[in-house]
Specification:
alpha/beta, 5-stranded mixed β-sheet, 9 helices, 15 strands, 27% helix, binds manganese (II) ion
Length: 398
Amino acid sequence: MNKSELLNDLLATPTAPALAGRQADPDKDFTRQIEVTGDAAEVTVRGPEGTDPESTAADVLRAHQLDPAEWEITGFRSSEWTMANGEPGVSARFSFGRRKADAVAERPDLDELLRAFDTYTPSRAVTEAGGEWTYVVALGDMQFGKLDGDGPEGTLRRAMKCIDKAANLLPEYRKRFRIGHVHIAWLGDHVEGFQSQGGANVWRTPLTLTEQIRLTRRVMAHGVMEFAPQVDRLTVAAVPGNHGEAVRPGGKGVTRYDDSHDTDALVAVGEALAIAGEEYTHVEVYVPDTDELTVVVDCSGTVVAHAHGHQWRAGRHFEWWRGQAFNKASAMHTADLLLAGHLHHEFIDTDGPRTFVQVPAMESESTWWRHRTGTVGAPGLMVMVTRDGQVPVKEVVR
Ligand SMILES: [Mn+2]
């Protein structure tokens, strides 16, 4: 016995022998055969005496997703035979032809269709200010204070430039939509803070916490000053991100969920607007309720929800949304559009009439992420136009 024989012998398993395929005998078995060629079909049925060949043939057609009403019998052959058990049987072969549709009657009247052109009035573009659409400006993840990439100065300059660009785009969008409302969404992680990673980010965060908060306040105020003169109604909302958490007792614990510098910076801006006078009385400022993490704002009939993405695992935004919506007390069950930050890249997803928009970060990169994956950021903000739950336009502004 050579080596390979020994190996094969030892590796052999007790598999069962193959069984020969059973050969059907049309003279012994009850059969139903069908053969379709274009508009012709041959159906053969065999069965015991008393079988109704015609209805059996129709059953065979149905079993092959053919409507018997669309087929007519064009030929028929029947014979009697003796089955294997000695009883008499019947055998019948039907030839079917597909019924010709009434071609003329089913054609649409072309003249009638062409008349649609005579009665059609093309809609005209609208350019005036005021109107039933909302222009949404969404941004987040500035993480002011962080050393990474072009640092706090790069992020600050980019944030101001992007807000200016978004403000300059408003007249452009007004050529297409009647926009009466502007909404600015601050989606969390506006400051780097010192709570992330249990404070281990302290060396790479050269700005103090109060400096980070001051920059956030100033940028938020800049946004308000850019848009307030251009619009009848300006709403501004902010939500807490994980970096904005004010205190983590023992590095892990939580205080109240609304205890956040990301939102408190906007509260401070709101207080300044309240004493600034007439120019800003049409500006409304919103943050989540006590111990809450989300906020919803009506934008021309679209319920816009805001959340920071640390609340769900990457890619599970709709699962999270569905779960929240199951709670009838949550405003998430009425939301049409969910705006989110946290994952630092542009991502748009839809599920039926609902839209999810994750904005890019405003910071230029996460150096930790670049070393891990090679990927730098593509920073910017996003603008959208919305009304009655629709979000027909989404644009990234860099
Ligand atoms: Mn985050």
